[in-house]
């Protein structure tokens, strides 16, 4: 499904189309992937450092964010390899293993991000809509179990992407190129499984959760404290933006494009247009790494206090005893009030 190269083999008379899309593809990918790699590495690296330094203050939200940051960092670490590939006009220098891992890491991150965001949204929904049941439903232990389940599920179901490696073509070594026509049937099956399980179902769950959150906040506007309302609203904005910008365009375009590849009567203009859409939407999908740190900065709760703790821990050269556990007031400021079962 990593259809990032020349999507369709054109007739001999249409070589101009291939050259045009290659030039566009190489410039856009090398530029956008560079920007995403820098922003994603700095943002997620910083979040990860703060979360690790203040890990004894963990809540359900922090556990989800920790896993989300790890997923993003694994992906952005492979983006420089893609940048080098496209800067050198589609020539892979890093061996077959890293070619497979780069494609694999991209999709693991994509669907881990979607599922971690879904888990966060569900937990926030329980915390706000069902605050009493929240004490048993949203716990540290259950959050860890949910994260482990997501990792196992995504890494196993994304394993088919490890089957596509590098291969020689002329005087170059190719990677991230479109599948052969003989693979289209199995690719469509894989696509629809990923589409429903990895996008439509999570997006439906998130939509229902946010509708319930908004309804509860409007109904109990005087009872909910300002901090809870603000964190819930920020999460809704950021997650919705991530889906609208990164995930939705990519999945819609991928569905259309895979069916487009099966056609034999496409004009050169249509092929070029579809290829450029793939370049744009795949870049937008990769940009989800830049949205995730915003969740922690604006919706994570107690960010300033954790940052202060992180600075003190970083500047201190004396080994101190374990930090004190969260006070009742500090727990109230966290995104999810949970029991530590």
Automatic annotation (TrEMBL):
It is a multi-pass membrane protein. It is found in: Cell membrane. Its main location: membrane. One of its GO terms (biological process) is inflammatory response to antigenic stimulus. GO terms for molecular function: leukotriene receptor activity. Residues 318-341 are annotated as: Disordered. Residues 43-296 form the G-protein coupled receptors family 1 profile domain. Pfam families: 7tm_1. This is Cysteinyl leukotriene receptor 1. It comes from Terrapene triunguis.
